[in-house]
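Sample intake — Dicarboxylate transport domain-containing protein
Collected from: Woeseia oceani
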Amino acid sequence: MLLPGVAVAAQDSTALNGTVARIEAADWNLESLQFGIEIDDDGLRGVVRIGRLELLAAEQVLTDTSIVCRTISFVADRIDCADAQINADFPAIGRQTITGDLQYERNSQAVRFELHDLMLANGKMSLQGHAVQHGFQLLFDSTELQIDALLTLLNPFTDAIAGLSATGSARLSGSLHSGDRDEYVVALKAALNDAAMSNDVGTLVTDALHGDLSITARQQSGRYEFDLDLQADRGEVYVEPVYANLNEHALTVRVRDAVTADFVQFQLANFSVQQGSVLDVGGTVQVSLGQDEQPTTVSGRIVLGDSSVDTLYSSGLQILAAGTLFADLETAGRVSGRFDIADNFPLSAHLEFTDVLLDDTRRRFAVHALNGVVNWPGTEGAAGTVPASRLSWDSASAYGIALEGAEVAMLLGGNDVELLAPLRIPTMGGALLINRLIMRDYGTEQASGLLDAALEPVQLGQLTGAFGWPAFSGSLSGKLPLLQYEGNAMTVGGSLTANAFGGEIAMSGLRLEQPFGRVPRLRGDLTMRNLDLEQLTDTFSFGLIQGRLSADVTGLEMVAWQPVAMDMHLYTPPADKSKHRISQRAVENLTSVGGGGAGAVLSSGLLKFFEVFAYDRIGLRCVLRAGSCTMSGAGPAGDSALGSGYYIVKGSGIPRIDVVGYRRDVSWERLVRQLGQISSSGSAVVN
C-alpha cells in the first residue's frame, strides 16, 4: 500500500513523502518502508527507511535500515539512487554506514545495487546484485579476510562449515543466486594464505596452506551438488586417512558432480588428485567422514596413474597398515593401476610395479627392484578369470636371510594362489626351489595349502648367522616333502632331510604356526647323525676336535625364530671307530662353557706341553625351559671342591685329560652370547 503526500517546504524546494506497508518476494519481504524526496534546483535527493527486511533464504532479518540518496533520477520506469549512504545492522557484522548505488524498477519491482567497502572479518568486501520477485543474484569481491572471523560470519547461513575452526586469511570473490524451486547456486573463489583449518572430529586438517580454491555448489531439495578445484603449493593437508606435504610438490585437486546431503556422506562421481610427478589418483568413490570415533571409509573405484610408492605409503597406506608387518617400511619406486574397494576393504586390483623398494625397518623382510604386474579378480573372483600375475626382483631378504633375484608367475583368484611354474630363488650360495605351491582361502579360518620344495646346497654360515647363532662351516641341502598348510599352521608330511658336515640331519614332526604372523611359532624334533667334528670345528676358532658327533633335539619350540624350549643332547656315537683327538684350545673352550677346571690344569704341570689329547667320548646336554639350560654331560664325574660334576669330555689313553662341567643351570642367552664371543675372539670362541 503506497500512501504518498506532497508538501512545499520552502519557496525554492518541494518535498515528497510516502510509505509502503509491505512488499513480498520469493526470497525476501519488506515492511514499513518510508521515503522522502526533496526537489530543488540541484535535482532530487531522498531518504528511505526500512523498518524490517526479511532475507528468507538466509533466515536473517535487518531492522532500522536507512538509505540516503544524494542524487535521484527517473529513467522510464526506473528510479536510480546514486552515491547513496546505507546505514544498516548487518547480520553477524553489526551496524555500519557504507556507500553504494541503488536502482528500483517499478513495473518488475526489481532492486539492483552496488555496495562498497563493507567492513567484515578484518577486511572489506564489495557487493553487487539484484533481487526480483522470483529470486536474487549477488556478486562479491573482497580484500584479505581473516578466515576465523569469516567462519563466524557464515555459520548462521549454512551447515557446510559446521564444526570447522580455522586461522589464516583469504581473498574471496564469487556469486550467489537463487532460482526456481528453492534452488540456490554459489560460485566461490578463495586465495588462501597460511590457512590452518580443522573439523571437530579431526578427519580434516590443513596447516600453513597457500593456494587457490574454487567451488561451485548448488542447493536444492535438501541436498548439495558441487564441483571443486584446489591448487596449493605450500602447506600440509590431512583428509583421513590421507596426508600430503605440499612444500616440495604442489597439489591439484579436481572434483566434479559431487553430491552430499549432510556434509558427512559424499558421492564423488569424478575426482582427481595430482601432486607434481609423485602422485596421480582419480576415480569414482563414496566417502563417509569419520564420526564418533568411527574411521573415514571409502568405497568405489580408484584409478592410480604413474605415482611414487613412497608418497602413497607415507600419505595414507602406512596409516592403514598400522599393526601389520607393513607398518614401518622404507619405500621407493613407481606404481600404477586400479582397484575397487568397499569400506576401505579391497575388492579387486590391477597393479603395475616399477623398481619398487619395500624394506622393513625392523629387518624382517625386504624386496629390492620389484617389477611386474599383479592381477587380482577380487574375493569373489576365481583363478583364471584374469591374466596371470608376474613379478621379478633383483634381491630380497627374509628374517636376515639374503635372497637373490628371481621371477614368479602365479594365478590369483579370490583368496587363492597357484604357482604356474617352478620358482627358483638363489640364496646363501645355493637356492630354494619351489616345485609346487597352492594356497586356498588364504587369510580365512579355512585357509589351506600345499608346498613341494627342495634346498640346493646353501652355506651353513649364512643360514646360522641369519638366526643369530654362531657361524657354521659347510653346506646344507635337503628336501621339503609335501608341506601342507591348514588351520593357520604348516606341517610336513615326512621328514625334512639335509646333508651337512659329512653327516645327516633330519627334522621330523615339524609344525609351524602363524607362519605369516608377527610371532611365528615352530615345533619339531631334530636329529643329527655322525657329523664330522673336524669339519664342524673348522668352522670355529673353537679348537680342533676329531671324531664323530650325533645329536638329538626333542621338544624343540621356537617363538619368533628364537628357541624357548628343547632337550638338546650332543654325544659321541656309540659305534664311532674314528680317531678321537681334542686340542688344548678346544679343552679350554669346553671348560669355559661347563664351568670346569681343566683350563687351570692345562696351564700348569706337564699337560701344558701337549697340544692334543685323546678322549673316549664327548657329551653335553641342555634342557631349555624358561630361558635357562639345565646342563649335564657324558656321565657323572663325582664330587670335588667345585661340586658334583659331569663329563663333557671323558679322556682316554696318554696324554689324557678330562673336561668336567659343574654348572647345572646356565642362562640360554648367556650361553649363546658366550659362544658368540668365542666365535669372534678366537679364545674360548666359536669361529
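Post-analysis note: The CA atoms of residues 506 and 656 lie 34 Å apart.
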